[in-house]
Amino acid sequence: MTPAVPKFFIQTFGCQMNEHDSFRMSEILKHCGFEATDCPSQADVILINTCSVRRNPQNKVFSLLGQLRRLKKSRPNLIIGVAGCVAQQEGENILRCERAVDMVFGPDHYFRLPEILERVRKGERVVLTNRTDDIYERVDNFIPDNWLEAGHVEGCKAYVVIMKGCNNFCAFCVVPHTRGREVCREPQNILREIKTAVEKGAKEVWLLGQNVNSYRAHGMTFYNLLDEVSQIDGLLRVRFTSSHPKDWDNTLSDLMAERPTICNQLHLPLQSGSNRILDLMNRRHTIEEYLEKIRYLKNRLHDIELSTDIIVGFPTETEEDFEATLRVLEEVRYSQVFSFKYSPRPNTRAAEMPDDIPQKVKEERLQRLIHLQEKINGEQIQSYIGTVQSVLIDGSHLRDSRIKNGRTEGYRPVKIRDAGLKVGDLVNVRITGFENHWLEGVLQ
User: Fold this and answer.
1) Given this model, what pLDDT does residue 140 score?
2) Residue with more model confidence, 53 or 119
3) CA-CA 20 to 30 A from 41: which of 129, 196, 281, 328?
4) Distance CA 229, CA 188 (A)
5) Residue 138 pLDDT more than 70?
6) Rounded to an integer, what distance in angstroms lies between the CA atom of residue 198 and that of residue 303?
């Protein structure tokens, strides 16, 4: 009788970087003989890849661990691990608080997953959150060459990490403490991974990093890297995230305008429209500088789609500060806004400030911001009707296989009723209507 293949389940919280890390861990486990399952009750190994940027995702992690405690009680051989930023932040505390957890490891250690699993099988409870002293002082191929064949390709898209960590120490942000200081990959290591992904069928690549604009390695800046990536044969689209306003400059706007493969889409976190709050946040730019860069970009790319992050209720935020943020929304007219109520994070400068904005006020401001953004987005979606958009097909509709899904250059989702289309096709679509945030169209 053939022995059962061991199964694993990964629950991911957080950003695209976390999604990418989960993919890497998935590939490592498959390499070790596991297969994935969508059902935690069938898994032999359960990993929770965590985010601690805000309080709510962290709360969800501990709530999930409480549920898994019951599963572990009925299946004592089940291995449960916590990875990612909460793991890096909490370390031993997780093992003390949750007896069901067998292993805790930070973002720097997921390539050691086979070793960690072996130690757990021998009865050890493992915590790996240490960092080597020299990791912050060197360019690093933190994705080893022998794992490049496991490039993160989903359908027709590839996700490639070009750097990790952050040196900015924004007052509200825990990333420098959980993911460490900036470390950049060698450019040739990045380019090899992208070319491998294209050979595997990728038509679009996302360059990922906490702050891609500050990429520097072997004399190459982010501008140089983006320029080279945009000219790789067979690659139809290039996107990147995330950018920091203080590091964005007009040469990057010019490059976006000059290279047809670089999508007309930019995520540029605002956080606040008030200079006083930006200064308290240690953002190291003014709102005037931010808007000047946006105006230049819009002048070079008239159809640019912009998205942003905004925090409401940062310590001492007044009504005047908040209204300054709303004025920026009115001027920039973002396609998408990721908005959050401020919550103190451990080890950050803001955690030492009084969290003096009542929750009721935070909630009221958040709702006002969401209402304004929905109005702006509704007007933008309406303006698409009758236009022709270049759409990359990336999948089928979940409930109707006759409908194909795709994205415009600006990352707007589009539904097209045409069963003959394949994932990876780049087609011109005339927009005929919309449903909620989805555009609808027909082949041109």
Assistant:
1) 60
2) 119
3) 129
4) 11
5) no
6) 27
How far apart CA 410 and CA 383 sit, in angstroms, is 14
User: Which one, of 287, 291, 288, 293, lies nearest residue 274 by Cα?
Assistant: 287
Mark which of 71, 101, 130 sits at the end of a domain.
130
Amino acid, res. 420 = G
User: How confident is the model over 193-208, as pLDDT tens digits?
Assistant: 999 999 989 999 999 9
Is the CA virtual torsion 193, 195, 201, 207 positive or negative? positive
Residue 42 structural domain: 7-130
Look at the chain and report how many structural domains it folds into: 2
Q: Is the pLDDT of residue 123 over 80?
A: yes
The enclosing domain of 81 has a CATH number of 3.40.50.12160
Q: Model pTM?
A: 0.88
DSSP 199-233: HTT--EEEEE-TTGGG-EETTEEHHHHHHHHTT-T
Cα angle 324-372-323, degrees, rounded to a multiple of 5: 15
pLDDT of residue 141: 60
Q: Is the pLDDT of residue 10 over 80?
A: yes
C-alpha distances in Å from residue 401, one per residue of 33, 416, 435, 442: 32, 11, 18, 16
d(CA 22, CA 257): 33
Q: What is the pLDDT of residue 137?
A: 44
Residue tagged 């690659």 (tokens): 235
d(CA 61, CA 64) in angstroms, rounded, equals 5
In DSSP notation, 328-345 reads: HHHHH--SEEEEEE----
Q: Is residue 14 part of a domain?
A: yes
Single-letter amino acid code for the residue at 157: K
**What is the layout of strands, in order, in the sheet containing 7-12?**
35-36, 7-12, 45-50, 79-84, 103-105, 126-128
How does pLDDT run across 63-79, given as a tens digit for each residue?
999 999 999 999 999 99
Say if residues 223 and 235 touch (Cβ distance below 8 Å).
no
The residue with tokens 């690093």 is 140
Q: Please state, for a pLDDT cut of 90, what percent of the chain lies above it.
A: 78
Element (H, E) at 370: helix 359-384
Tokens of 260: 């047809």
- Phi, psi dihedral angles at 269 (to 5 degrees): -60, 125
